[in-house]
Write a structure and sequence with these properties.
- The protein is an alpha/beta fold.
- The chain folds into three domains: 7-69, no CATH class; 77-234, TIM Barrel; 238-328, no CATH class.
- 43% of the residues lie in helices and 10% in strands.
- It has 15 helices and eight strands.
- Strands 6-1-7-8 form a four-stranded mixed β-sheet.
- α3 (23-33) runs parallel beside α5 (51-69) and α5 (51-69) crosses α12 (226-235).
- The two termini are 21 Å apart.
- The structure holds iron/sulfur cluster (SF4).
- The site of iron/sulfur cluster has 10 residues, from loops.
C-alpha cells in the first residue's frame, strides 16, 4: 500500500462515502453516476465541498473512472527538451527565463538536442516534448528547422512541440498565416502540440499577478483532489483520460489524484526545467519501472501508452525493473480528512 494515502481514506467504499454526504451533494453525485451532466451551479457546489462531502466526491470520481476507463494507469516514456531559457516575454510568474547576458542563460545547439534525443530513444522514449523561451533575435525558421533536424534522423519519434506562444512567435517572425505555419511545422515532423500548464485565462487577473513565485506547497493546498475528482465528475463523457503532473504534485500527490478520478501518470520526462524553476522540487525524471511500481502500489495495472493514448504495452505482472522510489515518497499528504 502506498504511504501516500491515509489508510482510513482508502478503505471507505464509494457507497459508504456517498451515504455520509449531505443530501444535496449526494444528489449531485448520484446524478453524475447515472451519466447525467451537472449544470454550472451543480459543478460550482461540488467545487467547494469539504469533509465527508469531499470524501464522497473523490470516491465517486474514482468509481466513475473505474467504470469509464478501467483499472489501467497509463504513462508515456518521454523526454523534455528545453532548447533555451532566454526569453523576452517576462511573465511575472516565470522562474525559468533569463536575459541573453545572464550567466546561466543557454541556447543548446541542434547537435546537443539531437544527442539528448538519441539518449532518450536509447532509454525507450517514444516522444520528446520541445519547448523553450522566446529570444528576441530568434530566426523565424528555427522552430521548423529544429523539428526537421530531429525528424529527418529519427522519423519514428513523436515530436510534441511548442506552446501556443511559441507558435504565435513563429507566425510573427515568418509572416506566414497561422494555418500555413502549422502546416509547415507538420510537414517537417510536428506530431502534436502540448496542452501546456494551467493558465489563468483572464487578462485582468494576469495583469495583476504578483511577481512572487507561487510555491508548490501553496499550489497543492489550493488544488489537491478537488481538481482531478471534479474533472472526472464533470468531463467524464468528453475527456476519458485525465493526467496528473507528478512534477508539480510530487509522487504522493499524484498517486492521491490517481485514486480520485485520474488515470494517467504523465511521462518520464528525463529532464524538466520549467516547473523546477517555478519552485517545484519533486525531481526531473522518473524511471518507467518506478512509475509501474507506484501504480501497482495502489492496486492498479500499469500500461505504457503513446502520445495519442494508444496502448503500447500492458504490464499485467510485476517485473524486475519495478522499484518504488522510496526516497521520494517520504513526504506524505493525507489528501482529505475522514470524519468517520
Ligand atoms: S519562458 Fe515562457 S513563461 Fe517564462 S517568461 Fe518566457 S514565455 Fe513567459
Amino acid at each position: 500500500m502506498t504511504k501516500a494515502m491515509d489508510p482510513r481514506w482508502r478503505e471507505v467504499s464509494w457507497r459508504q462515502a456517498l451515504s455520509h454526504a449531505t443530501p444535496a451533494v449526494a444528489r449531485l453525485l448520484e446524478k453524475s453516476l447515472e451519466g447525467r451532466e451537472l449544470d454550472f451551479d451543480g459543478g460550482l457546489a461540488l467545487a467547494t465541498v469539504k469533509g465527508s462531502d469531499l470524501l464522497a466526491l473523490v470516491k465517486v470520481a474514482d468509481e466513475m473512472r473505474r467504470q469509464k476507463v478501467g483499472d489501467r494507469i497509463t504513462y508515456v516514456v518521454n523526454r523534455n527538451l528545453n532548447f533555451t531559457n532566454i526569453c523576452i516575454v517576462g511573465c511575472a510568474f516565470c522562474g525559468f527565463s533569463r536575459g541573453p547576458k545572464a550567466k546561466d542563460a543557454y541556447f543548446h545547439s541542434t547537435e546537443t538536442l539531437l544527442a539528448k534525443t538519441r539518449e532518450a530513444l536509447a532509454l525507450g522514449a517514444t516522444e520528446v516534448c520541445i519547448q523553450g523561451g522566446l529570444p528576441r533575435d530568434l530566426n523565424g525558421n528555427y522552430y521548423a528547422e529544429l523539428l526537421g533536424a530531429i525528424h529527418s534522423q529519427l522519423p519514428h519519434l513523436h515530436l510534441h512541440a511548442y506552446s501556443p506562444m511559441e507558435i504565435s512567435y513563429g507566425v510573427e517572425k515568418t509572416g506566414l498565416s497561422l494555418r500555413d505555419y502549422l502546416i509547415r511545422l507538420k510537414e517537417v515532423g510536428l506530431g502534436s502540440i502540448p496542452g501546456t500548464a494551467a493558465e489563468i485565462l483572464d487578462d485582468d487577473v494576469r495583469g495583476d499577478l504578483s511577481p512572487n513565485k507561487l510555491k508548490v506547497s501553496r499550489w497543492i493546498d489550493v488544488i489537491t483532489l478537488i481538481v482531478h475528482a471534479l474533472a472526472r465528475i464533470l468531463l467524464n463523457d468528453h475527456i476519458p483520460n485525465l493526467q496528473v503532473s507528478w512534477v508539480k504534485l510530487g509522487f504522493d500527490g499524484a498517486l492521491a489524484c490517481l485514486e480520485a478520478g485520474a488515470n494517467d501518470f504523465s511521462g518520464t520526462l528525463m529532464e524538466e526545467s520549467i516547473s523546477k524553476a517555478a519552485g517545484a522540487d519533486f525531481g526531473e525524471s522518473v524511471l518507467p519501472g518506478e512509475l509501474r511500481a507506484m501504480i501497482r502500489s495502489i492496486g492498479r495495472v500499469p500500461a505504457e501508452r503513446d502520445t495519442a493514448y494508444g496502448i503500447r504495452r500492458v504490464f499485467a505482472e510485476a517485473d524486475a525493473d519495478e522499484r518504488l522510489p522510496v526516497e521520494r515518497l517520504a513526504a506524505r499528504h493525507a489528501p482529505i480528512g475522514v470524519g468517520y
